[in-house]
Amino acid sequence: MKQNFAIIGLGRFGGSLCETLIESGQEVLAIDRDEDTINEYMNIATHAVVANAQDEMTLRSLGVRNFDHVIVAIGEDIQASILVTLMAKELGVKNVIAKAQNSYHAKVLYKIGADHVVHPERDMGVKVAHNLVSKNILDYLELSDEYSLAEVKVTNPKFYDKDLLTLNFRQRFGLNIVGIRRNKKLIISPAAEEKVLQDDCLLVIGADEDVDRLDAKML
Ligand code: ATP
Prior knowledge:
With 219 residues, this protein is of the alpha/beta class. The protein has helices at residues 12-23, 35-41, 56-61, 78-90, 103-111, 120-133, 164-167, 169-173, 208-217; strands spanning 4-8, 27-32, 47-50, 69-72, 95-99, 116-118, 137-142, 147-153, 162-163, 176-182, 185-188, 195-196, 201-207. The protein contains nine helices and 13 strands. Residues 135-219 form the RCK C-terminal domain.
């Protein structure tokens, strides 16, 4: 389904977000106060506008409140990032995603109403570290300080050809299986009788230590 996104700030993060959303067929309004940056995105974004997003009238006149998602991708100017996030929420935007420079910045963004806060450098560091220490965790998404969604490759024959009811991941590991990736197919919310096959990848949600415990079982 087509959704519309307003991206404020087209640095490396906002810019790559813009290009990827456009590639996947979404509508993107790109806003940046720097004219050269906007010229770069003129032929990429659906609309690209030079504007200082710290000005409430500007945000109103651009109709930011009508967007499904507003991404505040301003980095270094923490004050601007906080102010714009606050104004976007006050204008009634349902989903405001803000980029944080550090954990204090992230805390403030949540406090003032950001729906999601991303911290790309830290998040990518966590991901790369998990990929380095584990052969079986293919992907990793931190949901909170304690919980994660992970994609774990099944390489232990003890798990092969058994159904989810028998394997009982919830009881044994405290993990919920939300999907199974088999070759290129993704089975979402697999039924209890679904069998786990060799080289399947399990999408699991649970506490970090439980994910690590499951990963250790695969060795
Ligand atoms: P990245 O890591 O994504 O490259 P960054 O953390 O270095 O970004 P900045 O370069 O400071 O962040 O900001 C990203 C973009 O946001 C820049 O292109 C900048 O021009 C734009 N920007 C900063 N403040 C505003 C503002 N008030 N209104 C509109 N755009 C802004």
